[in-house]
Amino acid sequence: MGALHGVRLCGTVPVIAAAEDLVAATSDLELNEKNGECFQQQAEAVVAAQGAFLDVCREDLSYATKRWQLLRRYKERRFLRQQIGR
Question: Which of 19, 32, 65, 83 is the most exposed place for a label (fewest CB within 10 A)?
Answer without folding.
Answer: 32
